[in-house]
Design brief:
The protein is an all-alpha fold. It has one domain. The protein contains 2 helices and no strands. The radius of gyration is 42 Å and the shape is rod-shaped. The termini are far apart. This is ElaB/YqjD/DUF883 family membrane-anchored ribosome-binding protein. It comes from Hoeflea marina.
Length: 112
């Protein structure tokens, strides 16, 4: 019986050591996962900042390009307006006839 008692104590001691080892490994794994999560968060934050800065640059570039296009189109529209006004002053009856014909065509298309 002494042998059985020693065997139980030995088994219990080994089980305790195994349990302690597993607990230590689990704690180490938790710590490693926490560090990994922090690293991923920091990398994600850096990447987000980089993407934000690049996006801001592109938005500013698009805004500048659109302002230039609007200015150019405005100039073209002003030139076209002057040209139409000059044509109407030179030929008022012909301009009135074209306007009536255009109105008639638009009315026909809208009926369908």
């Amino acid at each position: 019986m002494a042998t059985a008692s020693r065997a139980r104590k030995s088994f219990t001691a080994k089980a305790s050591q195994t349990e302690a080892g597993l607990m230590a490994r689990a704690e180490q794994l938790r710590a490693d996962l926490a560090r990994l999560a922090d690293s991923i968060g920091a990398a994600g934050s850096d990447k987000a900042d980089s993407i934000g800065a690049e996006t801001a640059k592109r938005i500013e570039s698009l805004r500048s390009a659109s302002d230039d296009m609007i200015s150019e189109l405005s100039d073209q529209l002003s030139g076209l307006e002057r040209q139409v006004s000059g044509t109407i002053r030179e030929r008022p009856l012909q301009s009135l006839g074209v306007a009536v014909a255009a109105g008639f065509l638009v009315a026909l298309m809208l009926r369908r």
